């Protein structure tokens, strides 16, 4: 992960926007609020499978038990405007990163990168334990980013 200044806005992107990216949005929103960082978070999917749907019930359940609220989130597909509206777009895996680079306009202003050095495993075809493992990975990566941003902010 490269060190970047705290962004004003972050978009998380996975395939369907019902497991990983909304979970990352909820975790980061919670952690940023607790650290007095005012960053706008959103999430989207590269595919149009679940547009308008709530996150997977297993993500909602696991998130709620860990203190994260996903209840107000609805799936949407990433669009060209996202590359101008967000400072950072985090891909949850290499396939999402490749798709984002294919969709990205030449004059895009967003910085597109992996959320973590290792891909966040897609729990969709797994069980509840896979969702808890996903949240654990997201929490570690989120804390790492927020620690970096807080450090940069203190030095400014």
Can you describe what's shown?
- It is a single chain.
- By secondary structure, this protein is of the alpha/beta class.
- The chain has 5 helices and 4 strands; from the N terminus they run βαβααβαβα.
- The chain has a 4-stranded parallel beta sheet.
- Strand 3 (88-91), helix 4 and strand 4 form a beta-alpha-beta unit.
- Helix 1 (20-34) crosses helix 5 (128-155) and helix 2 packs across helix 5 (128-155).
- It is globular.
- The two termini are 20 Å apart.
- The model has no long low-confidence stretch (mean pLDDT 94).
Helices, strands, pairings?
Elements: E1 9-14, H1 20-34, E2 40-45, H2 57-66, H3 82-85, E3 88-91, H4 94-103, E4 111-114, H5 128-155
Parallel strand pairs: 1-2, 1-3, 3-4
Helical percentage: 40-55%
> Describe the biggest sheet?
4 strands, parallel
The number of helical segments is: 5
The quaternary structure here is single chain
Low-confidence stretches: none
- Straight-line N-to-C gap: 20 Å
- Overall shape: it is globular
Radius of gyration: 14 Å
Overall SS class: alpha/beta
Mean pLDDT: 94
Which strand-content bin applies to the residues? 5-15%
Spell the H/E element sequence. Answer: EHEHHEHEH
Q: Could you tell me the number of beta strands?
A: 4
Strand order of the largest sheet: 2-1-3-4
Summed up:
The chain is 43% helix and 13% strand. The chain is α/β, with parallel strands linked by helices.
């Amino acid at each position: 992960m490269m060190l970047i200044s705290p962004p004003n806005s972050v978009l998380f992107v996975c395939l369907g926007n019902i497991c990983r990216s909304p979970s990352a949005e909820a975790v980061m929103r919670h952690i940023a609020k607790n650290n007095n960082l005012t960053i706008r978070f959103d999430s989207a999917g590269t595919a149009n499978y679940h547009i308008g749907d709530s996150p997977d019930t297993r993500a909602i359940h696991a998130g709620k038990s860990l203190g994260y609220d996903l209840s107000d989130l609805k799936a949407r597909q990433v669009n060209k405007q996202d590359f101008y509206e967000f400072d950072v777009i985090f891909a949850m895996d290499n396939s999402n990163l490749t798709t984002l680079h294919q969709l990205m306009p030449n004059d895009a202003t967003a910085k597109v990168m992996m959320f973590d050095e290792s891909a966040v495993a897609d729990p969709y075809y797994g069980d509840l334990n896979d969702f808890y493992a996903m949240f654990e990975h997201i929490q570690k990566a989120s804390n790492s980013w927020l620690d970096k941003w807080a450090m940069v902010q203190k030095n400014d």
